Amino acid sequence: MIDVHALASELMAACSGGRTLATPPSRDGLDLSAAYAVEREIVRMRRSQGHHTVGVKVGYANKAMWRVLKLETLVWAHMYDHTVRYAGGNAATFSLAGTISPRIEPEIVFKMSLAPRAGTTEAAAVLEAVEWLALGFEIIDCPYTDWKYQPADFVAAGGLHVALVVGEPRPVTAASIPDIVDQLAACKVRLLKDGLLVAEGSGRNALRSPALCLGELASAMAKRDGAEPLAAGDLVSSGTLTESTPIQPGDTWTVSIEGIDLSSVALTLDSPG
Q: What is the CATH classification number for the domain harbouring 154?
């Protein structure tokens, strides 16, 4: 049996202290049901400290990975008021203090205007519940040695979430939805480090479209016992559009996108201290 509170406390201490666990808890029998219980306990503990949840981040938004890892759907974990920031002028800085081996991921960020309906499979219908979307970066870090973990370990560790940096929002209107549907599926992203191209990706890397990823998330949450459904005002980070990339202090990372009118975002990583 997994001691949910003890594991939540251990993971929070590891993440805040910049250290790794000796073994991922899946080796001791942690499954997804228990992992979500641990993640909910971390939410409870952070709320008791005065923090607020502001939405969720998505993981494993790739059906090829589902087959390999024996998943039926994507997974998710919460983001918080102290982990999400907005890039004024589409540029931001972030300190890597307390991290172990951080990585960066370019993503599409949605803000919900309504609670999305579970079971919605059409991108246009999903976008009817969206207030705006933006390009952004997620910073992730891993409390497990050598980044070796299973989906249950990912969920229990809060989806490895450290921070989300959000670029300039683009409003979603009824008139703009048809264009956005096509653009999200076809858009191309470029990830640069200090001005040099590191990786390229596509909206199709997130379940063929980040909008479809959002619909899948709503359905998955509705089926998970104990899950808090998405609500108006929540942010959703749709899953990475490229492979995650290691980062270090002194880097400046830029993500730009073609095929959809979203502003690029630049992120400079400060030295800890």
A: 3.90.850.10
